DNA sequence: ATGTTCTTGACCGAATCGGTTTAGAGAGGT
DNA sequence: ACCTCTCTAAACCGATTCGGTCAAGAACAT
């Protein structure tokens, strides 16, 4: 469109530069980029911001990724494969208990965040990204790959164990609020608190379960 | 610093231009500015963005407010007074029940959002604003005025009615998660759904209350 | 020393920034 | 008809920042 003709990166030689870095250095750069894109969106996250957050010079970002767009798309695919891996590895469709399903989803999310804490907010912003330069590519990637979000859906969950007077739709909504706030709080946490937070959420879910389930389904603690 | 010498707005003639607008037009502009600043922060929210979101030309923003900074500070003070009014009007310190206190806070928040739905996210971003051009002014305003947040604090709340086995700190944390997600969901809602949402939250709180309180404190519905 | 690889600060044209000026559209008075 | 006068947007301003490049120094190996 507006950028000068580029003759490089036919075949991906540029990304090799990045991939040959140590994992530690790569993670610093990836985390910085995920954070900036996640917080500011594609357009308003500048390469200078990302470079500064990663502690490298702007020129290095272009050295590693070629263009801003290539970096963004690389991050999308990276997050996609991390999510898919984690879901395929941990998701168990045979778990039908409502709260256990939620616990499982949370464990998956925490596993993902342990790799890159900024992935959830990055993906959330990506889903709403509307910039002309990338939105078609996002749509293509989302349409092409199987969407991991569908796999965590709550189809086939056993809801018969709830007390009769419990409003199930309300519980769903409440839990989605809890999960939202929980994730948000996680994002601001240092890596070491992940499991503490996860335990707290699980205790929280147990508490709800103990109070919302019919007595015969409440396990003794 | 870098801007040319300005000789206008000694005494606030410029803001009068804005205040003489119809309330409807003013609200459109205010909402647009709150949304943009709230979502992107002071620096990354451009006056062009705000003007476009408000459906007016960039020149009009400067016509009404003089500078970007003046607009931002105007919004802070506006939100501050809206919050203070609402808190002073609705906050009742004699309510000591845990859940009733939360309901009250939510009602206050919804009243505020009915005036400008973007206020909560704007204030949240303001608290974390760190741009050199405005951070000192923010600190001055926050230090100067009595902070409405302190008034909603949960000091003096009666927690004795909870079942003994309930982990109170956990309930607090869980409720803060719910409130977060709830607010977030509210922000994306059209004005007419506010009360529906508020009712849902209240039902949700009643449900928790019925299950977490000792039986003698649960009112018959 | 010499060649090679990394890395960067300075730089590019284009775009956008905060902010100003100009000029046209419209309302109202005469 | 003409003349103000107000409101508004488009065109414009210099400065900054944008995505992206490049020449030259640091670092390392030989």
From TrEMBL, chains A, B:
The keyword DNA-binding applies. InterPro entries: DNA-bd_HTH_TetR-type_CS (IPR023772), Homeodomain-like_sf (IPR009057), HTH-type_Tx_Regulator (IPR050624), HTH_TetR (IPR001647), Tet_transcr_reg_TetR-rel_C_sf (IPR036271). PROSITE patterns: HTH_TETR_1, HTH_TETR_2. It comes from the Bacteria. Residues 46-65 bind DNA. The keyword Nucleotide-binding does not apply. One of its GO terms (molecular function) is DNA binding. Signal peptide: none annotated. Keywords: DNA-binding. Residues 23-83 form the HTH tetR-type domain. This is HTH-type transcriptional repressor AcnR. It comes from Desulfosporosinus acididurans.
